[in-house]
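Researcher: Next entry in the queue.
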Amino acid sequence: MIKIMIVDDEPVERDGLQIILEHNFSNLEIKQAKNGRIAIELATEFQPDLVFMDIQMPGVTGLEAIEKISADNSRIKFIMVTAFATFDYAHEAMKLGVRDYIVKPSRAKEIVEIVGKVLSKIEEERESLKRNNFQQEALQKAMSLFETDIVTQLLFDHVHEVHLEELVELLEIKVTEEKFVMSLLLPLGSETYYSTIRDHIRQTGSGWVGALYGRQLPMIIFRNDDLSFRSQATLLARDLLSLVKSGQDTEWFIGIGNVYQSLDQIRLSYQESLIATRDTDLPVKFRFYNDLPALVPGFDEQTTKKNEQQFFELIRSGQWNDIFKSFAGFIDQLELKGTNLLQTQQRVMELFWIASRVLSEMGVELDAPLYSFHATDYRQLRGETSHLLKRMRQSYETRNAELEADTIQQIKQYIVDHAHQDISLEAIGKKVGLSPIYISKLFKEQLGINYIHFLTECRIDKAKKLMRDPEKTLKEITFEVGYHDPNYFSKVFKRICHVSPTDYRKKLHEA
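Model: Structure for this entry, 511 residues:
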């Protein structure tokens, strides 16, 4: 429905024009105003698409009314209606955005021709606006996927250099030099809170939110120089905890890692944030890694951190022979120092807890690793430790055995088939029943590249094929291969192919 307003101080002129319009055009809603003042008021309420404005009216003139209405809504089109086709009127009207003019009296044929052109323009702009709105909505959706994948690969892998710079630019969030990670533990079944949390972080520009897997939701937070690290993290933690309904937050807990400058180091902050969730039965539902008391007092802090980071990487990469050696070497080291046996057992249990957290990331479910008894000597401790490690390894290998041999091929084919859509590690994970982290790990181990790199290669290969068709524009190709921003597509294409899409196409058609 196109809305039209006819403004003229002569009722006969208004009615005559309305009859011509209704006779020659369909799907119109027409209202009339007898002077400029009423026209201004009616335009605010009616929001017309097109206004026929008589220039010579008592009180507020047509040009004055056009100026006022245009100021409130620049989208409205105007056709000037006048008995005087003078240059001065036309010049002033065109400056105000008047599309055309009708000289009274005019033949119906002339009016229909002029109106037809303007209505076509209105329909064209509506379609363009609809497409732009659709593209913006699609871009917003894609940005959410970009964000979760960036977090997943920064914390568990490495984002390919082709993408990090462009993705950060596309997310339109100012990335500060210093960053830290907050890990939010949610009760199982709390998926409904995910969108609320992500929207809150995005609205405040605090950082990036990763994918929710199991109970864990990691967030990379950008440092705010106006606040101290502890103040910023505390305020944000309290904000996030306030999002849950009263009485339902007993299982919510936030671990906060230390600040690091390099994105390459952000995985350390993530590991620290996860370790900080070790004890969730606290009155305050968040804890800084640096505030975490040692389960066994007297151990060197630097050595402790080094061991924690080492175990994170060994467990995540599935290097079980090295894991067994590390546990055995750790116990040997403590025995040589004459460490109390109970303290050693407690310290080893810390490492088991880290291992269980990392395995949980990858979808390996297992019972809490607990010693069945207090060892009476180091020999018994080594035997029980070996037994627990074997159980843990069995759970890991059982999970791997459950996967079909061609799982990676299924994932690759899914990406090939859906590369033009907004797909993410999270979406693929739901499709094949694996965690995003595990999929990232499979790609790295079996293909030597990460998922984003493979997805990009699929899209660029398809773009190259589409460029052979001279009828397709680069903008059309951008959307057809799965990108939502032609500038971003151009940057990625140039990084991959070392030539711009325009130059590539030119050489293609010259050959």
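Model: The chain has four domains: 2-106, 173-291, 301-402, 407-510.
Researcher: Noted, moving on.
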